[in-house]
What we know:
Arginase, Chain A, 9 helices, 10 strands, 33% helix
Amino acid sequence: MPQETQIPFAQAPQSPFPTAKTVILPIPYGGTTSYGGGAEKGPQAILEASCYMELFDEELKKEIWRTGLHTLPFLEPDLTGPKETLAKITKTCLPIFKQQKRIAVLGGEHSITTGVLWALQQADPRPFSVLQLDAHADLRNTYQGTGFSHACVMRRIHEMGHPFVQVGLRSLSEKEWSFIEDNGLMDNVFWARKIIPEQNDVWMDQVIARLNERVYITIDLDVLDPGIFPATGTPEPGGLDYYTLLKLLRRVTQERDVVGFDLVELAPIAGQPASDFLAARIAYKMMGYM
Ligand SMILES: [Mn+2]
């Protein structure tokens, strides 16, 4: 799809790169999507929906754009292959992290996270944790012939040596289950089936306690229940609701140093803009929380 129109996020006044606090990077990449396609259309849909949001946020009681937003042009995939696309993402993200800016990546499919984190570890030697919000474990070693598939993203991050916490999981293979068990990762998994019926936030305390001081958050939007977020390639029943997700995001950003986030796996459904709006709103909230 030609991405000829570049819309600044929320159509708000933009800050020049040097003074911006948050840099928004849209990555229209859908290269390794397995089931429902369309993730490459996610960034355009989020940016379009963001134009219709109120710029004032009633929760934070401010116009979030005033913190200083800068929307970069679409980062087009390298047609050579997934690894080359990830390298291109790393190159683009490096100066953003080096200049201590927060990053807001709009995907695109989930494999892009690896490219962002290669940049983060190159830019700054201090350790960081990854908080993954997702219906899926994404811990496969390879999938459909590549190790750089959306289904392998957390496996690559594990190999990079960054600790991670997984929230909202409800779909994984037997091998992924064994991988979690064999590597002693079970205590870092917060299953949707267990946390959703809880009437308190004890699980949230536990999530945060397991994160380092510096945190990167990867939000696969299929962590949400398909009833409120149907526009994704592999919708799984029994997901989180909107306010639970927002509360977790707000608490993590308050209690940890969140250096950036990505929002992935929106596959827009024509004529049903609710999911696009939801994604835009979560992105804007995150920019405010950070
Ligand atoms: Mn997923």
